[in-house]
């Protein structure tokens, strides 16, 4: 009946609201994965009758970022007004930043590995 459908829709809407409010970037999650997850939640809200403004979604994504993005988050928040930030623009900037972090991490690991290989070994013939 109509009442049951309305109740189910209301429950789903509440569940998606909760997911949206509690969403945080997971330790192993990439920026793309975070955006996809938030987008799926937002689509669930839309399907059930609640449309979020882009500014609210942008704010949520910035709040959801892990600590390794704190520098980039501050830059984005201070150099632009939230009302002018676009989701696709934010995603592009964060993906680029994430790539540079990963590249730097890879270079650091490579340097550490090379340094370890170059360490002098113990003297020959000593017990």
TrEMBL record:
Lineage start? Eukaryota, Viridiplantae, Streptophyta, Embryophyta, Tracheophyta
Q: What is this protein called?
A: Uncharacterized protein
Which species?
A: Nicotiana attenuata (Coyote tobacco)
Protein origin, superkingdom: Eukaryota
Ranges for region Disordered: 101-127
Enumerate the PANTHER family for this protein. Answer: CCHC-TYPE DOMAIN-CONTAINING PROTEIN, OS04G0629600 PROTEIN
């Amino acid at each position: 009946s109509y009442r049951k459908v309305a109740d189910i829709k209301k429950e789903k809407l509440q569940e998606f609201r909760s997911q949206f409010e509690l969403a945080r970037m997971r330790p192993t999650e990439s920026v793309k994965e975070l955006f996809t997850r938030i987008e799926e939640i937002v689509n669930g809200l839309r399907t059930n009758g609640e449309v979020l403004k882009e500014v609210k979604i942008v704010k949520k994504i910035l709040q959801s970022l892990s600590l390794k993005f704190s520098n980039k988050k501050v830059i984005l928040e201070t150099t632009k007004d939230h009302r002018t930030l676009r989701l696709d623009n934010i995603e592009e900037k964060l993906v680029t930043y994430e790539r540079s972090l990963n590249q730097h991490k890879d270079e650091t690991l490579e340097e550490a590995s090379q340094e370890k290989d170059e360490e002098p070994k113990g003297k020959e013939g000593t017990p």
